From TrEMBL:
Keywords: Signal
Taxon lineage: Bacteria, Bacillati, Actinomycetota, Actinomycetes, Micromonosporales
The name this protein goes by in its record: Alkaline phosphatase
Domain of life: Bacteria
Annotated TM spans: none
Signal sequence residues: 1-27
Annotated ranges, domain Phospholipase D N-terminal: 32-128
PhoD-like phosphatase metallophosphatase domain segment(s): 141-480
Length: 511
């Protein structure tokens, strides 16, 4: 484990001590909105972060702690407050607040808010998970990922916030680490006036904190967070594009130096997301994989395909004939996480098992039958994938949800993709990006080729948006919701395609 330099330890210690002094009055600190996440039958995690000047280091706050009051109510007007208390926004945690509220009733909707220094936050709405022994008729959720701020507007979040859902699964690339010019890329807002520091690639804790703050100032993203509880995992851009474990994408960067950057990135990620206190990182290590239960209907396994993976095979390129990708000892999940997953889904009592993870699991050839495969995806870790799909073959109701690739795909999953005549053992729903890649298009020459040479693909689409899903007792339905445009404000949304799959006979059929 990486040891933090003594000078940095002294800085954090000093901040904590200073935080005991009286806090000066400030302007409205709730510029980044509110959020909730990781719902349990008896509780939910509430989040906010104080930042009266969000685009500046430390959010424009002095290094002192601020008391933050919180309330949970059964109604939006807060006439039936059932839980309340006071937390402290410490400078050592970026003045973020993580309140783990317990003692709530299962399967219920609640409202929450914060107050600090005479200012009241926006009201958020959240929902607890059903009781462990409950038998829900359905679970409604959305799958979303990849929201590059510079690539477009977040109208998709505004539409998602209006959907009737129980939870959002966000599957990575919440931020992008690259430099941003002063007008914010495709948004071309000359009034934005970003500080010059945004023209630097993120690598320090302050720069990562400021990048999250920029994204969270968006009103549509704030609306989606305030409307529903989120369950999140990361992919690569929260740290660096295509990193693997302790390996930077740049081969000249030593592992010990990259781990310093990873520690900064993981710390900022935890500070800026609705994650519980036990999830906070220790240096460059952060345990993010976990399970959620929705009564007997569904168990959701949230995976981490970045922190523990072996470095990508064959130079991290699109390759044909890469024998290393099928080497049994190579692992995408790491041995501990993989064994945890296989053990739990292998004996799961739930009717459905959701694998919420970052990268496309289905084989996807980028040419003919011997075409190129993407070594950054599950295609580069074929042995791990085979183990999971062999387990899914004996576990009815396995649904894989994925992000990362900025396209919509719907796929039948087979143990051996070279044998398309064999029965599917699971299905995969790959959601496109919220904005990454700009407007996109319904189809491209590459997508046409993929449909030709990957017969298990039922959909390949390049528009922006999200996937809306409903699990019933015996049937799953997925609606691919796509945007008319994202590079200009006011994009409209429509359903591009819909599929259903039966729990005991997996296979996507057009609805």
């Amino acid at each position: 484990m990486l040891r933090m330099p003594r000078r940095r330890l002294l800085t954090l210690g000093g901040a904590a001590l200073i935080g005991t002094l009286p806090a000066p009055r400030i302007a409205d600190p709730f510029t980044l909105g509110v959020a909730s996440g990781d719902p349990l039958p008896d509780g939910v995690l509430l989040w906010t972060r104080l930042a009266p000047e969000p685009l500046h280091p430390a959010g424009g706050l002095p290094p002192v702690g601020y008391p933050v009051e919180w309330q949970v109510s059964e109604d939006e007007r807060f006439t039936r407050v059932i839980r309340e208390g006071t937390a402290t926004a410490f400078p050592a945690y970026g003045h973020s607040v993580h309140v783990d509220v317990r003692g709530l009733r299962p399967g219920r909707q609640y409202y929450y808010r914060f107050r600090s220094q005479g200012h009241l936050s926006p009201v958020g709405r959240t929902r607890t998970a059903p009781a462990k022994a409950a038998a829900p008729r359905s679970l409604r959720f959305a799958v979303a990922s990849c929201q590059a701020y510079t690539d477009g507007y977040y109208d998709a979040w505004r539409h998602l916030a209006a959907e009737e859902l129980d939870v959002v699964f966000f599957l990575g690339d919440y931020i992008y680490e690259g430099a941003i010019n002063s007008v914010g890329g495709n948004r071309m807002d000359s009034t934005l006036g970003l500080p010059d520091t945004f023209e630097l690639e993120t690598d320090t804790l302050d720069l990562y904190r400021m990048r999250y703050a920029l994204y969270r100032t968006d009103p549509d993203l704030q609306a989606a967070h305030a409307a529903l509880p989120w369950i999140l995992t990361w992919d690569d851009h929260e740290v660096q594009d295509n990193y693997a474990n302790d390996a930077s994408r740049f081969t000249t960067v030593p592992a010990k130096d990259f781990l310093v950057r990873r520690a900064n990135a993981y710390r900022a990620y935890w500070e800026n997301q609705p994650l519980r206190w036990p999830r906070q990182p220790a240096g460059p290590d952060m345990s993010l994989y976990r399970r959620f239960r929705f009564g007997d209907l569904a168990h959701a396994y949230v995976l981490d395909t970045r922190q523990y993976r072996g470095d990508q095979a064959c130079g991290d390129n699109l390759r044909a004939g890469c024998d290393d990708r099928d080497d049994p000892p190579r692992t995408l999940l790491g041995v501990q996480q993989r064994d945890w997953l296989l053990d739990r889904i292998g004996r799961s009592p739930a009717r459905w098992n959701i694998l919420a993870q970052q990268i496309m699991m289905a084989e996807c050839r980028y040419g003919g039958t011997a075409g190129r495969l993407d070594m950054d995806k599950w295609d580069g870790y074929a042995a791990d994938r085979r183990r999971i799909l062999e387990t899914a073959a004996h576990t009815p109701g396995t649904v894989v949800i994925s992000g990362d690739i900025h396209n919509n795909y719907a796929a039948d999953l087979r143990v051996d993709f070279a044998r398309p005549e064999t029965a599917a053992v699971a299905v995969e729903l790959v959601g496109t990006s919220i904005t990454s890649g700009g407007d996109g298009s319904d189809t491209t020459a590459q997508l046409d080729t993929q449909r030709t040479y990957n017969p298990h693909l039922r959909l390949a689409n390049g528009q922006r948006g999200y996937v809306r899903c409903e699990l019933g007792r015996d049937t799953m339905r997925a609606d691919y919701r796509v945007m008319s445009e994202v590079t200009r404000r006011g994009g409209t949304i429509s359903t591009r395609a819909s599929f259903v799959s039966e729990r005991v006979r997996p296979g996507l059929v057009t609805a």
